[in-house]
């Protein structure tokens, strides 16, 4: 039986669902940044809340863009019947979120010690 002219649609649909998960993650990070800016006006230092909010929004943007790039590369590999390429998006996102969490922990510690 000769190979099909098109990839199995299940792979394409799974790839799209993965992209949607990346977009939801990015949107959640942006929403977290907006919440910090609105409801945590002073995190240990005057600029703390703004720094955390901007970091969360930029990390959310990175997640959405990185998810799209990953989706595109995977889609090209699926269409060409090649192995899926490796991606640095997930480790970068984990590192960015971990960095934000460390900054938040330090700022909350400063706020508690000053309080």
TrEMBL record:
| Membrane topology field | Multi-pass membrane protein
* Entry keyword annotation includes Protein biosynthesis: no
Positions of the DUF202 domain: 10-76
* Highest rank taxon of the organism: Bacteria
* InterPro entries according to UniProt: DUF202 (IPR003807), IM_YidH-like (IPR052053)
Membrane-traversing stretches: 21-41, 47-69, 89-110
Location in the cell = Cell membrane
Q: Name one GO cellular component term.
A: plasma membrane
Q: Which UniProt keywords apply?
A: Cell membrane, Membrane, Transmembrane, Transmembrane helix
The protein depicted here goes by the name DUF202 domain-containing protein
Source organism of the structure? Geodermatophilus obscurus (strain ATCC 25078 / DSM 43160 / JCM 3152 / CCUG 61914 / KCC A-0152 / KCTC 9177 / NBRC 13315 / NRRL B-3577 / G-20)
């Amino acid at each position: 039986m000769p190979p099909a002219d098109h990839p199995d649609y299940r792979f394409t649909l799974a790839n799209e669902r993965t992209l949607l998960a990346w977009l939801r993650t990015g949107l959640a990070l942006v929403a977290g940044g907006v919440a910090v800016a609105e409801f945590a006006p002073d995190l240990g230092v005057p600029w703390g809340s703004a720094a955390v909010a901007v970091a969360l929004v930029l990390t959310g943007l990175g997640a959405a863009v990185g998810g799209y790039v990953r989706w595109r590369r995977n889609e090209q590999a699926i269409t060409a019947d090649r192995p899926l390429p490796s991606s640095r998006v997930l480790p970068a996102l984990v590192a960015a979120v971990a960095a934000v969490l460390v900054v938040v922990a330090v700022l909350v510690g400063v706020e508690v010690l000053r309080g």
